[in-house]
Amino acid sequence: MNRRAVYLTCAALGLGLAAAGCGGRSGPAGAFRDTHPLPPDTMTFAMPEAGRYGGRFVLGQTTDPKTFNVMLANETSSTDVDDRMFTSLTEFDNATQSITPMLAKRWEVSPDGLTWTWHLRRGAAFSDGRPITSADVLFSFEVAYDSTLHPSVQDLLTIDGKRIEVSAPDSYTVVTRIPKPYALVIPALGSLRVMPRHVLEPAYREGRFASAYSVSTPPDSIVTSGPWRVGQFVAKEKTVLVRNPFWFGVDSKGRRLPYLDELVWVVVPDQNTAVLKFESGDVDGLDNVKPEDYKRYAENQQKGDYTLYDLGPGLTSNFFWFNLNTVRETKRGKKAGSPVVGPVKYAWFSNPDFRRAVSMAVDRDAIIRSVFFGEAVNNWSIMTPGYKQFYTGYVSPYDHDPARAKRLLAELGFRDRDGDGVLEDAGGHAVSFTLKTNSDNVIRIAVANFIKDDLARIGIRCIPAGVDFNTLISNIREDFQYDAVLGGLGAAIPPDPGMGPNFFRSSGATHYWHMRQPAPGTPEEARVDSLFDQLVSTTDMERRRAAFAEIERILGEQCWSIMLPTIRVKLPVRNGFGNIQPSVIPHRLLWNSDRIFVKPGARKT
Amino acid sequence: MRTYVLRRLLQVLPLLVGISALSFLLLQLAPGDFLNTVAENPQVSTQTLEAMRHRFGLDRPWYVQYALYLKNLFLHLDFGESFSRHQPVFTVLREGLLNTLLLAAAAAVVTWGLAIPLGVWAGMRHNSAVDRGLSVLAFVWLSVPEVLSGLLLLMLAARTGWFPVGGMRSLAWSELDAGARALDLLRHLALPALVAGLTPLAGRMRQMRGNLLDVLQLDYITAARAKGLDERTVVFKHALRNAINPLITLFGYTLGSLVSGSLVAEIIFSWPGLGRITYEAIQAQDQYLVMGSVLMASVVLVLGNLAADLLLAVADPRISRD
């Protein structure tokens, strides 16, 4: 009997526990003193009030960033953080919803609209003090166009299937040539984040780019081009950004930004915990709050020393659509080209009047009252009222009107032939379909149940089905195994319909109701395709708005996607911070993070 | 003894192959893959998706993927790379595993530190008010879901400020000295450990009580009492050592349910553990990260059982391992 072995085993376990307690280093220093001379070309940011140095702002996040390599960041937990650290030629100003210069101080376009010349800011530097030059921009383009890495920004930088030609006549000039006139050149180039060539090129040439700038890379060796750099990262706990001492942004008094010493994300996976953490003062702001909590936040503003900002209707549009997809290849007795849902359902779904009747059955006001606690507005377009540039105020002619819906269905030959309360079509088939949505989204499930009740009132049986998110995506994109799906479309930066070619174009991969059509299946879709070409091929804002208004009208008439209310966005931020200008466009709170400051006398540091 | 331990450890290998095969198969059967979240983004084209699928090797048949995985695992001890983090799986899991072990150890202290004395107490005072009171308490504990007790404790922490609201370390951690750090960690650990520890407490306590009652009815206890030994010696010296054996075995098994056992506490208290990493990996279908975590949990289970068997040998000299 060897007792020593037992004790050793236990000791090994104990050692492991002790090691778990070790943590990182570094913290906020004293008052910031700018020791580096300002560059010749600073960028002066307009802001409500000039601030002062010091302090930190802490934000809650449901999960931590997966990478600091902004080029390969694919989900918001990463881009929320990474976008603060890497700048681009131009940036989107959330307050005015317009483009502003950033690394490019100005640009010119040739008369044919194809050649764009960008003049970089002289003296702009990375966080290690090395200058940002055209070579870095060229390198970033090269990585973005890499066919093996295939960063998702590549899609934005590909115009009509072709790449943008890039050259650099000198260190501070970049010339881009696009294959054809394109409305979104500036935002497309603005979505390319500039990364340091002198640090990353060796890794890139050796095929190690994907693992460079990972979350386990030592913070000091992550060289950034934006206002912030990584100070500390603790997996599943927190991410701390500290100021880039060489950032070219200054305030109206010529003082270098950012004001704050630290920008901190604390990981709080559970929403209920996030509420408590905010109320106890551990977190200064939340950028995602459930509508049922709005009232509670509004009531506790005084006591909790915070403000609940009402940002107005959000950018996410909610809708449901019927499956009009066709079988891709012949198998299991289904012929290629035949409708996936079968001839009977396809006859209903493909009839615009059927879709209009369904739209008229939905009592959207009841949904707003019950599901959204009154915190939503009716919305009839992909461009919700949250889009300043493209919202037109369009109202669909097919809002709630059950009597008219019933008449329309009767005209189409739908009658309740067997007296069971459910309509039958001319062939005697009871009108019944399933409405799928992702089961993890409580609001969508509730909305689907409302739609079920509303449709029952006009004699249509709708069966809501909550399915796993991954299953739903496979159903929508790959096997098309569904009748109808309740989903939504989120926001892009910039908020411009031209950013959604995959949704509007009949050939698009997220043209949900009938995806990736080789040629437009209906005259209306053909018309939308050509209008969309107009929308993205001119920079004339009036013509672009007119083209979009026409697209919106056709979509509204056709009811391919049956629109539902859009949520009103509210979020709480602790008092005592200056230049807090939350907006519905991501990042809602931190888009101007370098200008946020701690007001004098605020109790928090 | 040494050969016994070695043999037990060697048995792990086929077990790991089996477990990895099963979890890989389940991941393949689950609909969709890691790129589904990317696919939902309307700005991402089909070509980009295909290119990414190729980069991650997801375009190859599943048996090729699995064969490569096994090869890397056994030849290079390489657990693969996490799709979402572009980092080796082992790096991602290591920290989470240590944090989970810390929470589990603290929870075990709560569970066993309370279950054994309370169980013994109840067993000694069979059918008394103490015994009945503890039974009632045990059943109340058993029926309160962890989520509820966790949120209630968090609310208490938020209202009173006695404990931090979740997390593992304060933001000011890096400015603290070693003593203050230990205290800070303990304050953060207290509530999650209490929640994770109280749930199994009721069961363990009842088990301890039942075992002790069984043993107390055996002939040798009657003999001991007849010898005139005082009750304390009878219980603690004679009965307890026999009554505790099944609990030692159970202790080994609890190590195996580490990952799932503290998941709820980890999520509610924002504890940076393995359970949360695994949960997120499953949701995102980050397949090698899921497999790595399942394998680690299995290794911990096997080691836990081994430790329990060895402990049993220490507690009960009748059991020989040679």
Describe this protein's structure.
- The complex is a heterodimer of chains A (605) and B (322).
- Chain A contains 18 helices and 24 strands.
- Chain A has a 5-stranded mixed sheet. Chain A has a 4-stranded mixed sheet with strand order 2-14-12-11, covered by helices on one side.
- Chain B is mostly helical and 322 residues long.
- Chain B has a two-stranded antiparallel ribbon.
- In chain B, strand 1 and strand 2 (87-88) form a beta hairpin.
- In chain B, helix 12 (245-256) packs antiparallel against helix 16.
- The radius of gyration of chain B is 24 Å and the shape is globular.
- The model of chain B has no long low-confidence stretch (mean pLDDT 84).
- The interface between A and B is large, with 78 and 78 residues.
Quick structural gist:
The complex is a heterodimer of chains A (605) and B (322). By secondary structure, chain A is an alpha+beta fold.
Structure keywords:
heterodimer, A: 605 residues, alpha+beta, 5-stranded mixed beta sheet, 19% strand, B: mainly alpha, two-stranded antiparallel ribbon, 2 strands
What's the shape of chain B?
Answer: globular
Helix content of chain A: 25-40%
**How large, in whole angstroms, is the Cα Rg of chain B?**
24 Å
Work out the largest interface and the residue count of each chain.
Answer: A-B, 78 and 78 residues
Determine the mean pLDDT of chain A.
89
Which structural class do the helices and strands of chain B define? mainly alpha
Main pleated sheet of chain B: 2 strands, antiparallel
User: Please, how many helices of chain A?
Assistant: 18
Uncertain runs of chain A are: 1-29
Radius of gyration of chain A: 27 Å
Terminal Cα separation of chain B, in Å? 5 Å
Lay out the secondary structure.
The complex is a heterodimer of chains A (605) and B (322).
Chain A: H1 3-20, E1 43-44, E2 56-61, H2 76-82, E3 90-93, E4 98-101, E5 104-109, E6 115-120, H3 134-144, H4 153-156, E7 158-159, E8 162-163, E9 165-170, E10 173-177, H5 185-190, H6 197-205, E11 228-234, E12 238-243, E13 249-250, E14 262-267, H7 271-279, H8 294-299, H9 301-304, E15 306-313, E16 317-322, H10 343-349, H11 352-361, H12 364-370, E17 376-377, H13 402-411, E18 432-438, H14 442-457, E19 461-467, H15 469-479, E20 484-489, H16 501-504, H17 523-537, H18 541-558, E21 561-564, E22 566-574, E23 577-578, E24 597-598
Parallel strand pairs in A: 1-13, 2-14, 18-19, 18-20
Antiparallel strand pairs in A: 3-4, 5-6, 6-10, 7-8, 9-10, 11-12, 12-14, 15-22, 16-20, 16-21, 17-22, 23-24
Helix pairs in contact in A: 3-6, 11-13, 17-18
Chain B: H1 2-10, H2 12-29, H3 36-40, H4 46-55, H5 62-76, E1 81-82, E2 87-88, H6 89-124, H7 129-143, H8 146-160, H9 178-216, H10 219-226, H11 231-243, H12 245-256, H13 258-261, H14 263-268, H15 274-284, H16 287-315
Antiparallel strand pairs in B: 1-2
Helix pairs in contact in B: 2-16, 6-7, 6-9, 6-15, 6-16, 7-9, 8-9, 9-11, 12-16, 15-16
